Amino acid sequence: MVQENSTATPPPIMWAQRSGVVFLTICLEDCKSPIITIEPTRVYFKGVGGTEKREHEVDIKLFKEIDPEKSEKFVRDRNIELILRKQEADGGYWPHLTNDRTKHHWLKVDFNRWRDEESSDEDDEMGGGGGAGGNYDLAEMMKTMGGLGAGDNKPSLDELESDSDDEDLPGLE
Question: Where would one find coiled-coil regions in this protein (predicted)?
Answer without folding.
Answer: none
